[in-house]
Every structure is written in structure tokens, then in C-alpha cells.
Amino acid sequence: MIHVDYLDRRNSIASVPTVCMHCDDPTCAEVCPADAIKKNEDGVVQSSLKPRCIACSNCVLACPFGVPKMMVEFEQMMKCDMCYDRTSAGKRPMCATVCPSQALAYVPPDRMARERREKPVNVFHFGNQEVTTKVFVMAPAESAAIHVDVVNYMWEESL
Amino acid sequence: MKPSDPSGHDSLWREEVSFRTADEQYVARRQFGTFLVLTSLGMFVGNLWILAKSWFFQQPLYPLRPVARAGDIAPGAVKLFQYPGEHDPCILVRLGSGEYVAYSQKCTHLSCAVYYEKGRDRLECPCHEGYFSVRTGAVLQGPPPRPLPRVRLESRGDQLIATGITLNPEEI
Description:
By secondary structure, chain A is α+β, with helices and mostly antiparallel strands. In chain A, 19% of the residues lie in helices and 21% in strands. Helices cover 19% and strands 29% of the residues of chain B. In chain B, the strands form two sheets. Chain B has a six-stranded antiparallel beta sheet, with no helix packed on it.
């Protein structure tokens, strides 16, 4: 599922895709009471399984990156699954194929580190929770981990 | 006791409900088939054993035990005794005609002790008002599902000897 957020809807048409980071220990799957979110052998965290999902929104609230979306009309959580239908067949995810500036790119992190000035980082700190992910984020070269102060990003603060 | 950290990596729930597809355990068709075959085999063998047991041990052997002397009990009086084991209470009744009958004292409903009601000439269970005929042990009224087991009696000289138990007195 493609999940696009508007950054500042009132003043700008700028949008940002929220791709799943595919955590090593996905919080969404850990809090799921119905065991509906599975991480498969490729390390890709899948959307909820339709027969199991009870639409409780635990994952929506728990994910530190805000990735899962509750699709009320389906009574099911859906999220970015790295376009598993495409990537499992050797194609790139849809977002990476259409991104004109390659802000989203589907390449191995070591190759990315060689080609760009920034450093790919996959360690995030949310307070005391350390999250390591399959997806990397480009960060300044000297940074080892990305510290996220969630309160600073809350929408009430930005108004 | 220190409570275990719910997010700890050694927690039991992580092991039992893993979010990894690779850790999911399904019962394979072959496993299920094996279970079915072995279970049916076990039940078949068990039934064979029950069949063999009922063939080779058809008559349970009851001991002979003197219950009372013939003149001890007046007509209309009762005597309690244990037969065939120490914990199987039975009741011996001398009917008004002088004939002796004996039954297990356990009501067939919920094993309350039945007693002889002389005025109405029947065995009564006080728990749920189950009444039995004193002549045959048959249920006259109430919840008991079966007649009382009857103790077979034999008179040798002046001794009354219990020789066995008949589960359905109406067959006598």
C-alpha cells in the first residue's frame, strides 16, 4: 500500500511517502493480539492477514514511525510491505521506481554509501527504545544513530 | 519475585507467538494422518482387550458370606451388612411373610442409603424420594434410573448365606 502524507496541507502541496522501515523487531507485530502481522523470511513485515486482523489499531498506535494505517472500510490494517508482489519477483518497489530524484532508492546500503556523501543509518532511538531496521535512512556522515524526539513532531506543536 | 520484562528477548510470549513466518508451526498432513492411524489403532486394541476381558471373566466371583441366623430377625425387621466388600452396604429385610430379601443399600440415583419403610412396605431413599419395591427392588417412584442390585441369598441350616449379586432382579 502506498501511504502518502501531506507535510503542511494548509500552506503547501508537498507530500511525503511514509515507507515502512521493516524493523528487526517490529513493534507493530509484537503488540498485535491476533498474531496477524508476520515478518517473512526476507525480513519484510507484511500487511495484516485478513483472516486474523481484528482491526484493533494497536499497531497503528504502537509503530514509532507511524506506518500502519487502519483501513476502516476493510476493517483491516494495511501498510507498506515493500511492494512484496514486485520485490519478490525481482522488481523494485513502486515508490522507488517513480521517485524522480531517487530520494527513495532500492539499492544495497553499501552501494549507497559509496555513491553518496551521506551515511546510511538504520539505528533509531525513540526515548529508551532502540529500533534497528532493514530500511536505511541517509544521515550526516558523522551520525551513528538517529534520535527521534516524537513530541517535537506532534502536529499540535507544529500548528 | 522480580517481574520479567515484557519486552525482554527471553520472554515466553516471543517464543510461543513469534511474528516470524519461519517460526510458525503447522501440523503436516502426514503428521495428522499418523496421529489418526495410531489413535484408531489404540482404540481398536483397547476394544479388543475389553472384549477378551468380557469373554474370559464372564462371571465375577462373589464370596460366600453368612449374613444372619434364620431366627435372629423378626418379620418386618431389617439387618444391615456389608457385601461383597467392606464398603458395600447392603440391607437384609425379613418380609411379613417370613421370606428374606437383601439389596444393596446404595440408591441407584446418587448412592444415598435406602431404608425399609415398614408401614408402606417399600424401600425408600430419603434424598430425592426414590421408592423401590421391597419384593423385587424395582423402582416405584422417583429419580432412580435402575432397580436396586439384589443380593442372592441361600439358606443352609439355620444360616443365611449371601452368594452373589444380581444387577437386575427382574431377571430372576
